[in-house]
Design a protein that fits this description.
heterodimer, A: alpha+beta, 6 helices, B: about 90 residues, mainly alpha
Chain lengths: ~200, ~90
C-alpha cells in the first residue's frame, strides 16, 4: 500500500529553491476550495487564454462524485499540496483497467491530470512551482506497481507536441489514436526503471 | 520516499493536462465489486483491492475476515500477498 500523505519535492520558482510538498488524498473540501474556487483566479490572464486550457471547465466535484458512485474506491483522487495549503495539482484514475500492451493484465487508467494554472508556463511567467505533473504521474506509477500491475499506466493526451514529448520522456508509448487524441501506456519495464531511478524500488 | 532533487534542472518545465473524456478502457473482470466495498482503513482498502484485482489470490486469501485481524496481522497478510504477486519495495 501507499502511506498517504508522503513528501515530494517541487521547485519553488519565486524563492529559487526546492521545497517539500505532500501527496494527499483529495477530499471534497480540498477540491471545492483548493481547486474549483482557487485555480482559475489567476490575475494577468485573459478569458481567451483560460478558455484555451482543456480543463478550464472541468466540474471536478461532479466528476469525482459520479465516478466514485460508479466505481467505488476503484476511482482514486490524489493531489499535491504545498505548506500553505494550496493544491498545486491533481490526478484522478481508475485502478481496475486493462492494459493494452499486455492484454488481460491490469493497468491504471488516468482520467484527469492537471497542474494548477499558476504553475503553467503558458499562463504564468514564471510559474509558481515546477515538477507538479511529474510527481502526480510518478504517484500513479507507484500505485500501479503496489497493486501488482508492474507500474503500467495509460492515459489520453491532449493534442500537443509538448504533451506528447512529456509522456515519451517518462517512458510512455503511443498505443492508439482516437479522434485526434493519442493514448499512451507506460510499459512494465519502463515503469520499473523509473521506480528504481526515483528510489521507490531498490 | 522518492529521489531527492537538488536544483531547478531536476524539475520538468511542462505542466501536463489530460483530455478528461472519461474511461475509454474495459475494466478487469470482477471490478464491479468495488462499489460495495466498505473498508475501515487505507490498509484494509489496499488488501481488498489486491484480492479483488487478482483472482490468483482467491484460493488462499478469499475467506480472510479483515475485521478479525489486528494491524500487525493485516501487515503480515499484505507481505504474503506481495510475495505471491512479486511486489517488492
Amino acid at each position: 500500500m501507499i502511506e498517504l500523505p508522503y513528501a515530494a519535492d517541487l521547485f519553488d520558482v519565486d524563492s529559487n529553491q526546492v521545497v517539500s510538498a505532500n501527496v494527499v488524498v483529495l477530499d471534497r473540501d480540498m477540491i471545492k476550495h483548493g481547486i474549483v474556487a482557487a485555480w482559475w483566479q489567476l490575475p494577468g490572464t485573459t478569458g481567451t487564454q483560460r478558455r484555451q486550457e482543456p480543463d478550464h471547465k472541468w466540474p471536478w466535484i461532479e466528476v469525482i462524485g459520479r465516478e466514485r458512485k460508479a466505481y467505488g474506491s476503484a476511482y482514486q483522487s490524489i493531489g499535491i499540496q504545498t505548506a500553505d495549503g494550496e493544491v498545486q495539482g491533481a490526478i484522478t484514475y481508475w485502478i481496475n483497467k486493462q492494459s493494452h500492451l499486455e492484454p488481460k493484465k491490469g493497468a491504471i487508467e488516468v482520467d484527469r491530470l492537471a497542474v494548477a494554472p499558476r504553475n503553467r508556463p503558458s499562463l504564468r511567467q514564471p510559474p509558481c512551482f515546477k515538477g507538479v505533473g511529474a510527481v502526480l504521474l510518478r504517484h500513479a506509477i507507484w500505485h500501479s506497481y503496489r497493486l501488482g500491475f508492474c507500474g503500467r499506466i495509460r492515459l489520453e493526451s491532449v493534442d500537443s507536441r509538448q504533451a506528447h514529448n512529456f509522456y515519451r520522456k517518462h517512458g510512455m508509448e503511443v498505443i492508439m489514436e482516437d479522434e485526434g487524441y493519442l493514448e499512451f501506456e507506460l510499459p512494465a519495464e519502463a515503469a520499473e526503471t523509473i521506480l528504481r531511478y526515483e528510489g521507490f524500488l531498490p | 520516499m522518492s529521489r531527492k532533487r537538488i536544483n531547478e534542472s531536476d524539475f520538468d518545465d511542462f505542466a501536463p493536462v489530460t483530455v478528461g473524456r472519461g474511461s475509454r478502457v474495459n475494466s478487469l473482470s470482477g471490478s464491479a465489486d468495488f462499489r460495495s466495498l466498505k473498508c475501515s482503513s487505507p490498509l484494509d482498502e489496499h488488501l481488498v483491492h489486491l484480492m479483488t484485482l487478482h483472482a490468483s489470490l482467491g484460493p488462499r486469501f478469499a475467506k480472510q475476515d479483515l475485521s478479525q485481524l489486528d494491524d500487525q496481522a493485516k501487515r503480515e497478510l499484505l507481505e504474503d500477498m506481495n510475495d505471491l504477486l512479486g511486489i517488492r519495495g
